[in-house]
Automatic annotation (TrEMBL):
Protein's recorded name: Sodium:dicarboxylate symporter
Alphabetized UniProt keyword annotations: Cell membrane, Membrane, Transmembrane, Transmembrane helix, Transport
Subcellular location(s) per record: Cell membrane
Pfam families (UniProt xref): SDF
Membrane-protein topology: Multi-pass membrane protein
The organism's place on the tree of life at top rank: Bacteria
MF annotations from Gene Ontology: symporter activity
Organism: Shewanella piezotolerans (strain WP3 / JCM 13877)
Gene3D superfamilies: Sodium:dicarboxylate symporter (1.10.3860.10)
C-alpha cells in the first residue's frame, strides 16, 4: 500500500503537518500564536533564496531552449499552443470560482491592511523596475522573470561564450536546488507552525471553504480533462484524431495519477504518441519541451488559488486583478512550473506580486498539494493534445479510417 502512495509522500507529510497545525491553532490558540516565529523563520529563509532561484533557474532554462531556435516554426508553434492551453483553463476556473464563490461569505481576518492588493494595478511597476538593484527584491519577481528570460535568450545567441555562461549557470542551478532541498526538510514544521498561528484567531468555518474550493477544482478538472481533451484532439486531427487520442490516452493518464510526475510519465507519453501515428521527429522534439512548458493544470490551480484568497480576504476581484491573475497563471504554467525543485515558488510568486499577506502561503500550499494529482493528469494528457495540434499546424492530417496498433 505504502509503495503505491510513495509518489505522494511529500504531499501527504506536508498535508498531515498542516492539518496538525490547524488543529493546534483551533484547540490551543495561545500556544499556537507562540509558534509563529518558527514559521516566520522558515518563510524568511525561502524569501532569501527566491531571487537567486528565479534568476538562475529561469535564465539557464531559457538559455538551453534557444539552442533549438534552428527548428523555427515548430518551436514557435509549441510556445503559442502552450500559452493558449494555459490561458483557457485559467480563465475558465476564474469564471467558475466567481460564479460559485467557495468562500461563501467567510472572511479571513489577518488584522492588517491588504487594500494595496486590490484596485488599480501599476502594471509598469509590476513588469519593470527603474534600477538593477530593484531586481534583487522579492517584490519585483515579475520584472526579474522578464529580465531572466531576456538574459537567457541573449546567452543562447552568444555562441561559444554563451555556452560557457550556460554551463556555469547549470552548475549554479545545481547548488541552488541543493539549498532548496535542505530548506525543505524544515517545511512541514515551519508551515505547520505558521498555519497554527493563522488558525488560532480564525473561525473554524474557514475549514469548510477549503472543501468547497477543492471540490470546485475537481469538478472543473474532470470536465476539462474529458471535454477539453476531446476538443483539443479534434483540433489536432479531426474525428480520427479524437479516436486515436482516447484509444491511447489511458496509459499516460494512469501513470500520471500513479506517479504525480509529468517527467516520470514522459516515456509513456512518447510511446502513446507513436501509437497515435504522430511523426517520431515531432514527438521527440515537442513532448520533452512540453513537459516543462505546457502545464494547464498548474495554470488552473494558480488561478483558483488567487480567486480563493481574494474571496476569503474580502478583496474586490477587479478587472485589473483578473488580467494579472491570468498573467501569473500563464507564467506559473509556462516558466515557474518548469523550474526544477522550485518548491513554493508559485505561492511566493502570488503573494509577492499581488502584495498579499504572507499568512496566506500555508493556505495556498494546501490547495496546491490536494490538487496536485488532477493537475498533473491535465498537464500530461494535454501534452499529447498539444503535440497533435502542433503536428497538424505543420502539415499532418489524420484520416478517420487510420488504425494504429
Amino acid at each position: 500500500m505504502w509503495q503505491k502512495l510513495q509518489p505522494y509522500r511529500s504531499s501527504i507529510i506536508l498535508l498531515s503537518a498542516l492539518l496538525i497545525g490547524g488543529a493546534i491553532g483551533i484547540v490551543l490558540p495561545e500556544f499556537a500564536l507562540s509558534l509563529k516565529p518558527i514559521g516566520q523563520v522558515f518563510l524568511n529563509l525561502l524569501f532569501m533564496i527566491i531571487v537567486p532561484l528565479v534568476a538562475i533557474s529561469v535564465t539557464s532554462s531559457i538559455a538551453r531552449m534557444t539552442d533549438l531556435r534552428k527548428l523555427g516554426i515548430i518551436l514557435i508553434t509549441l510556445f503559442m499552443v502552450s500559452i493558449a492551453m494555459a490561458i483557457i483553463p485559467a480563465v475558465s476556473i476564474v469564471g467558475l470560482a466567481l460564479a460559485f464563490d467557495p468562500a461563501q461569505g467567510v472572511v479571513l481576518d489577518l488584522h492588517q491592511q491588504v487594500e494595496a492588493s486590490s484596485g488599480n494595478m501599476d502594471f509598469v511597476g509590476l513588469l519593470t523596475t527603474n534600477d538593477f538593484v530593484g531586481l534583487l527584491s522579492k517584490s519585483n519577481i515579475l520584472a526579474l522573470i522578464i529580465m531572466s528570460v531576456i538574459a537567457g535568450i541573449a546567452i543562447g545567441q552568444s555562441g561559444k561564450d554563451g555556452e560557457k555562461v550556460s554551463a556555469m549557470l547549470d552548475s549554479l542551478n545545481t547548488v541552488i536546488m541543493k539549498i532548496i532541498s535542505i530548506l525543505m526538510v524544515a517545511a512541514p514544521v515551519g508551515l505547520a507552525a505558521y498555519f497554527a498561528s493563522t488558525m488560532a484567531s480564525q473561525d473554524t468555518e474557514l475549514l469548510s471553504t477549503f472543501a468547497r474550493a477543492i471540490g470546485l477544482f475537481f469538478v472543473a478538472a474532470f470536465f476539462y480533462f474529458t471535454v477539453g481533451s476531446t476538443i483539443y484532439a479534434w483540433l489536432g486531427g479531426g474525428v480520427g484524431g479524437v479516436t486515436q487520442f482516447w484509444k491511447n490516452a489511458v496509459d499516460p493518464s494512469v501513470t500520471a495519477l500513479g506517479t504525480s510526475s509529468s517527467l516520470a510519465t514522459l516515456p509513456v507519453n512518447i510511446r502513446a504518441a507513436n501509437k497515435m501515428g504522430i511523426k517520431e521527429e515531432i514527438a521527440d522534439i515537442c513532448l520533452p519541451l512540453l513537459v516543462n512548458l505546457n502545464k494547464g493544470g498548474a495554470s488552473m490551480t494558480t488561478a483558483l488559488k488567487i480567486v480563493f484568497i481574494y474571496s476569503i480576504l474580502g478583496l474586490d476581484f477587479s478587472a485589473d486583478v483578473f488580467a494579472l491573475t491570468v498573467l501569473i497563471s500563464v507564467l506559473s504554467a509556462f516558466i515557474i512550473s518548469g523550474v526544477p525543485g522550485g518548491a513554493f515558488l508559485g505561492e511566493i510568486f502570488i503573494v509577492t506580486t499581488l502584495g498579499l499577506p504572507i499568512e496566506v502561503i500555508p493556505i495556498l500550499v494546501i490547495i496546491g498539494a490536494v490538487t496536485d494529482a488532477p493537475a498533473t493528469l491535465i498537464n500530461v494528457i494535454h501534452d499529447l493534445n498539444a503535440t497533435q495540434i502542433i503536428e497538424r499546424i505543420n502539415g499532418k492530417r489524420y484520416k478517420s479510417e487510420t488504425i494504429i496498433e
